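Tutorial handout. Part one gives the primary structure; part two gives the three-dimensional structure as tokens.
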Amino acid sequence: MSGPIETESEPYVRLKSLRQLQQAMADMNTARSLADTVQTIADGLVASLGYGLSSVHLVQTDGDLVVAAVAGTDPQELPREGITTSRETWDSRLSAGEAWGELRFVPFPEGRLFLEGDLPRYGDEPVLPFPDGWRPGDRLFAPLYRPGAQNELIGVLSVDRPLNDRRPGSWGREALQMYALQAAAGISNVRLRGDMQVALVRRETEQQALRASEESFRQAMEYAPSGVALAELDGEPHGRIVRANDALCRMLGRSASAMCRLSFAELVHPEDMAILLHSSTDGGRAEVRLSRQDGTHLWVWLRHSVVADIADGPRFLLTHVEDIEDRKRRELRLTRSATSDPLTGLLNMTELRFRLAARLCGNPHEEGLHHHTVAPEGSGDDRTRGLAVFFCDLDGMAEVNERFGYGTGDAVLIEVGRRLRHGRQDGDAVARYGGDEFVVLVDGLTAARLPAVQDSLRAALEVPMWVEGRLVRVGASLGSAWASCGKSDEEILRAADLQMYEEKRSRSAADRRAQVREIVPERRTARALPERSAVQDFPEAPAHTWLPQRPAMQGHFVRAWPTRSGLGPVPARAVEISSAEQITRFADLTRVHRLVCRATSPTSASCGSCPICGRC
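Part two.
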């Protein structure tokens, strides 16, 4: 300022001051950085408000104030930038002296006691002749508060040595207060811009890191050797799939677009739905079957991870899918071999006893979660439904194996298992107990229905069965017992077994053997007839046409006649069959053979009227 503010006329001084303030604030707002802004503020105090020395002190993060900028006509009298003064010192300064509105004036000699070195210092000068003269020890401070928060100090303006050597009047004080308000706003704005720039840089850095992370996640998901899927939650634990990698698409034989139209609930096997729901809600693991495009199902291992949003909570379900079809098949084969009979596919004895024992308990009156198995009393009006145990023993299986071979016997056992299993309901079980013994568990049966079920089982087994190119009929002896808590599985099976043997003893051996025979159809009978001319050519042959009722067996004697004419007479002879090859040879349709006797050697006892062995 070229002249003293207070010596001009009041309107002129105010107008001139406003113009200078406007220019100073314009310069303040054009500054780009905080350092430029505070230096512009310090320069404006000297150039626009008419002070010879000025300094700007800013509050640091720790609360202390540092000299951020200085300006003045005599640099030697200015404090050095960077000097720090404690907040307590500044609080005592701003509470000393006189309050000029928002300003704080500390007159000489009190102001001369501030010896921290962060304020201007100059030598003693003569006292001015007028009473309002500025003394060397006078101090004038203008606190800077954050706009909108008057209690938050952000800095202090310190001015000294007015150019007119007078203490500022009312207008000078008002101008300094106005300037302090604009300075506080300018400092706050530049800090805000700086914070915004830092935030923008940080955000850009974070976005770049996020893009890099997303790309890494995309590549890791896309090129993962196992299947990976990302599904929406939307309040449901098995929401729609939004992304599936190539491995999962190839695993299920579906395209990526087709996968994104489905959910795991639509892919999982219906029997595994409960397992999927339980594993999805707790972010766990599960082994389930997923449907493929061709309609088959694939055993997979699922591992879920919940992808949560900080603001919105869980958003997605990340699922890793691993193909365990081969392992599951091996496990199922091992389980099946451990619990099932390898020939018939029925339960084995161990698994049967395990299932039966699971329905039993030691104390039938014990209260708890166990559902007691109760045996019906047997009265006509008793509607109690219990678990019936049927013990079945096939009659004559040894003779089947002897006559037809063990291959036919195995085929008979397989067919018996199939018939016993037919018509069984959930909760029922059929097991091969061992050899030609079978056990059937029928649940929910009343006492009145038990005989009918037992008769139906026997009737199903007595129907002739087609095995190994022949119709064979077998018989069966059955016994039954009721399962009930308080008994062991061994006791129940023994009771059914004993009843079965009672039935077997009540029937004659001849009745049981009569059920075991080959049923020869008429068309096979016709094919087995020898040519009539062949019968007439050989007087040794019977005059009547004879049809064998059973095939030759080892240890039996057979008389054979060739059936082709022109071969000449063949002496009658008895042949002992001692090998399977001989059985096949004598079973040829080009020969007519007749079982002669059941002796095991030519010297055995005679078997009745026999024209061949000569002993009958």
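Part three, for discussion. The chain has 18 helices and 22 strands. The first strand starts at residue 51 and ends at 59.
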